Amino acid sequence: MTQLELARQGSISPQMETVARAEGVDVEVVRSGLADGTVVVPANIGHKNLVPCGIGRGLTIKVNANIGTSSDFGSIDTELAKLQTAVDAGADTVMDLSTGGDIRAVRQAIMTASPVAIGTVPVYQAGIDAINERGAIVKMTADDLFRAIEDNARDGVDFVTVHCGVTQSAIDRLKQQGRVADIVSRGGAFLTGWMLHNERENPLYEQYDRLLDIAREYDVTLSLGDGMRPGCLADATDRTQVQELITLGELVQRAWDAGVQVMVEGPGHVPLNEIETNMRLQKSLCKGAPFYVLGPLVTDIAAGYDHITGAIGGALAAMAGADFLCYVTPSEHLAIPDADDVREGVIASRIAAHAADIAKGLGSAVDRDRRMSLARKRLDWDEQARLSLDPDRFTRVHKQRATTGTACSMCGQYCAMDLVAQYLNVKAGKC
User: Fold this and answer.
1) Region for 177 from its dihedrals, namely left if φ exceeds 0, alpha if ψ lies in -120 to 50, beta otherwise
2) Model pTM above 0.85
3) Which of 96, 334, 383, 429 is 20 to 30 A from 108 in CA distance terms?
4) pLDDT over 60 at 431, yes or no
5) Could you say which of 3.40.50.10190, 3.40.50.300, 3.20.20.540, 3.30.2350.10 is the CATH number of the domain covering 3-360?
C-alpha cells in the first residue's frame, strides 16, 4: 500500500513516525495530512537507505537541490560529489536531471548513495533514448515514455516530474498568448515538439491511468510538472500558465482517487507583486496539494546571483503557501552548476525556507533564532556556529579575521553588546 492509502485507513507507517520525529509534531499531524493529500512523504518502496521527509501543510518548508550531467559536462563522480555537497549543506531532497553520458548508471549510483529522497524527469531518458536509437526525440513512442518511468520507479526514485498538463489545448493557448520566452521547461519542450510533430495528444495526459498504475505499484510521488511555466517576468501569470494549472488541479484529484501521492510544480519567473496571487491560485485550483516552486525568480537580470533572486522569491512564496523550494544556483542561466554552486544554492534556499517558517510562526524556527540571539549576547561562538545554517562557513570566517578579545573583529574592543553588558553590570553593582 502507498503512504496515502495507509494514512487513509488510519495506519501509522515507520516513514510517518520518522517524519513526525524530525518535525517535532505528533504523528497524527503527518498521517492526517497524508490522508487528505496536503502532505506527501516521497518514499519509493525500493529506496532502502532513505531517511524520508514530509512536505506540505503544517511542516517545515523543504529545499530541493538539482544535480545531473549535461551533454557537455558531468560524470558519475562529479554527480556523486554534488550529491554529497547538497546533503551536507542541508538539502531535503535531490533531483537527478542528467541528460549526458550513461544516465541510467548515474541515476543508479545516486540512488545507492543517497539518504535523501531522489527525484527525476523520466522524459529525459525516453527522449535521449529516441535520439540515440532513432535519431530524434519526435520518434519517441508512448511505450518508450512509460518504460522510462517504470525504469526510474524500479531503480527506487521517490518522486518523478511528469508534464501531464502540456496538452494540445495548452499549446494552442501558448500560440495565442504570444509569449516572450515561449517554453523554458526542458521536459515541456521535449513533449511539445513530439506532440506538434506527431499531431497527437500528450501520452502522460491521454494515458494518465497508466502513469497512476506505475506510481501506485512503487509508491512514487507524482510531481505534476509546470511545462508551461513562465521563463521571464513578462510571461508570468498568463493564460498559458493558468490553463496548465487548471488541468493539473483536475489530475491531482484523479491521483488521490487512485491512492497515489501527488504534488504540483509552480513558476518560474514571477514579479514580487504576483507571487502571493500565484500561491493562492495553486492552492485553490489544486485543493491544497503541496506546491513545489522553482525560485520563484523575481527579476531577469541577476545572472550570476540568481541564488539570491530565487531566495527572495522563495521566501515570499513559502510565506504565502508554497511547501517546497527548488533551489537556484549562482550559475543558473549561465552554466551547469559545480559543487560550490550547489552549496551556495542550497544555503540560499534554506535561508528563504527558514525565514518563511518564522513568518508562519513555526515554534522550532522561532526558537532557533531566539537561541542564536542569546548565544550572540553571551559571545558564545561555539553555540552560534552550531545554530547557524552553515557552521563550516561561520567558523572559517570568524577564525580568519579573529580578534584578540571575546567579540568578533567587526567591532573588536568596541562591541556594543559587550560594552552595554559591562555598563549594566556596573549600574547594578555587579562589577
Assistant:
1) alpha
2) yes
3) 334
4) no
5) 3.20.20.540
